[in-house]
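Hi R.,

Here are the chain sequences for the assembly we discussed:
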Amino acid sequence: MSATLPSSSSPLLLALREGTRECHKALEARLPFFATGFDTAAYSRLLQAYYGFHAPLEVRLGQYQEAKRAKIPALTLDLLALDLSTAEIDALPLCQALPTINDEASALGVMYVLEGSTLGGQVLKRAMAERLGLGPGNGTGFFDVYGALTGHYWRSFLDRLGRAPSAAASQAATVQAAIATFQCFERWLGRRGVLNQG
Ligand code: HEM
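And here is the predicted structure of the full complex:
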C-alpha cells in the first residue's frame, strides 16, 4: 500500500518533520538574519560559517547525492560577490564535527535537512533582498540555489525518500542523522560566534 501513498505524506517524511521540528525552531531562533543591526558584513560572516559546515559535508555526501544538488559552487560565488578572495575562501575554517554518513539511510537524513533548507531559503532570499539589497547574483545564490526549480527539486527528493527502505531501524537512522545535522550545524555556528547572543 505504501507505494501508492503520495510522497508528501510518506511515514518517513512525517517522522523527519516530527523529529526535527524542535531543532528547526531552536536554530531559527538563534540565526541572526532578522536581528536588529544585521548588515552585509554580518551576513558575510554568517555565510563564511555556513561554508565551513556545508563544504566538507557536501564532500562527505559524495556518491549519495546527485551532482546537480551541489550547493557549494553557489555559496562560493556568493562569498566572491561579498568580496572574499579565492585564497580567503580556501582558508576558511572547516567543521570537523560533522554528522556521520555511512549508508543510504544516514545520507537521506542529512539530505533532508540540506534540501529542506532550500525551502526556507526562499524566505531568506527575499528578506536579504529587502534588508541588504542582495540578490541571487550577488550574495544570496546559496539560498536560491535551484531558482525556479526549487519545488521540483524538493518533490524529486521526496520521491527518493518515499522509496527508502521501510524497515524501522533504517527509518530511525534517517531521522537520527537529520537531528544530528541540525545539532552539528547549530554547534558549529555557535563556535564561529555568528548566532544571536542570549
Ligand atoms: C532564519 C532561518 C530560517 C527560516 C526563516 C526558515 C524557514 C522555513 C520555512 C518557512 C520552511 C517551510 C517552507 C515550505 O514549506 O515551503 C522551512 C522548511 C525547512 N527548513 Fe527552514 N528556515 C530557516 C533555516 C533553516 C536552516 C538553517 C535549516 C537547515 C540547515 C532549515 C531546514 C529546513 C527543513 C529541513 C525544512 C523542510 C521541512 C519540511 O517541509 O519537511 N531551515 N524553513
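DSSP finds seven helices and no strands in the chain. The helical segments are 11-30, 40-61, 72-81, 86-90, 104-132, 150-162, 168-191.

Let me know if anything looks off.

Best,
T.
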